[in-house]
Design brief:
- By secondary structure, the protein is α/β, with parallel strands linked by helices.
- It has 2 domains: 306 residues, Rossmann fold; 80 residues, PDZ domain (Pdz3 Domain, Roll), CATH 2.30.42.
- The protein has a 7-stranded parallel β-sheet with strand order 6-12-11-7-10-8-9, sandwiched between helices. Strands 13, 14, 15, 16, 17 and 18 form a 6-stranded antiparallel β-sheet that branches.
- Strand 17 and strand 18 form a beta hairpin.
- Helix 5 runs antiparallel to helix 14 and helix 8 packs antiparallel against helix 11.
- The longest helix is centred in the middle third of the chain and has 25 residues.
- The termini are far apart.
Length: 416
Amino acid sequence: MNRFPARGMDTVIAVYAVAIAKMEHRPDTAIMKIHLVLILASAAGCASCDALEHGRGELQMPVPIAGTSIKPRTFDLGDPRKVDELTGKLTDKRALFIGEIHDQPQHHQNQLRLIQNLYARYPYIAIGVEYFQQPFQTHINDYIAGYIDEREMLIRTEYFKRWQVDYRMLQPILNFAREKHIPVLALNISEEIHHKVFHGGLSSLTPEERAHIPDDLQSVGKDYRDRLKAIFDIHPEGDSFETFVEGQVLWDEAMADVAATYLKDHPQTLLVVLAGLGHMMYGDGIPKALDRRLGGRYSTVAINGNQFGEHPGIADFILSAPGGVSLPKPGKLGVAIEDGSNGVLITRLVSDSAAKASGIDADDHIVTLDGMTVTNVNEMKAIMFDKRPGDVVHVTVRRERLLSANQDLQFEVTLR
């Protein structure tokens, strides 16, 4: 049943693919060749992905034999008419999945365009995101309701500790949700549980931890497992391939469980799910787990990236994502930092450091920024994330002395 009026209107293991993907047919198999990078990203943003991101090789991923030879249609969402046309094709489903490569600004722009147009046509929508973890849902609710501001939300959800993808790409989506009072769901399982499963399997969880995961976990099918094996072979994560698969199953199923519970409680709602494209390619991962919980095929999958349009069955729709979109250069203090016992410890000053030019030294502890108390790196990043070169920040540091009392010093720093 069409729930929209008839009048038209204008993603430890998330898998992303960057650059060129192409199909090669061989006598015995078909592969998707991912040039330059296939990034494995943990919920914390992933320290392990840098090596692959800047690698020179290519990963060959097995492609399932599609049940159709029809390639998914590509929509250029820079054209309002195409946005309107695509929106009209989403009316008979309960969930729209929009797959992304997390660090691609144009992918998030496409997500925002679709969300805005869906809301204009049918305001009973919610947004589920991979970027926030389930234990912090209350703080997301408080932000959407206007009880806390953006910085406080980022601090309370530990965003910069647990995700670490540049928040400025996601900010317009969260701001629109707050403006329109659109519910936002924190889909991701907690990092602590997820990490434990990747390294020790589901059997390593305590009864208390098991209470926080879905009861009805279902293993992946052969095609999805083959893709995971190709990833694991190039970048092993966890204690074994089996724990790697269990970690991926938990990640997908936990996000699907939150989504399904919400949709059952809100039968008129259309849920837009924003997650890494590896969680939804070929309908595997979250969409399959969600449909199983809802008892039918209620999901539509759209993934960003023109290169994927050559693969039948990879998604229902492809979203054109032209390059050349970039964020403004961030303003930087020019320091390497870590959590310290007395504030945020400066471990070293980088070359051409704005902080050094102002008189700040390595081993100083930052205790306030622009009058706001700073006790850890997450808090500091929540204050600094939207600063630009040329902005002036007021920094208080605590300088420890061996033979005298510690000294609090104030500096005015022009960011570079």
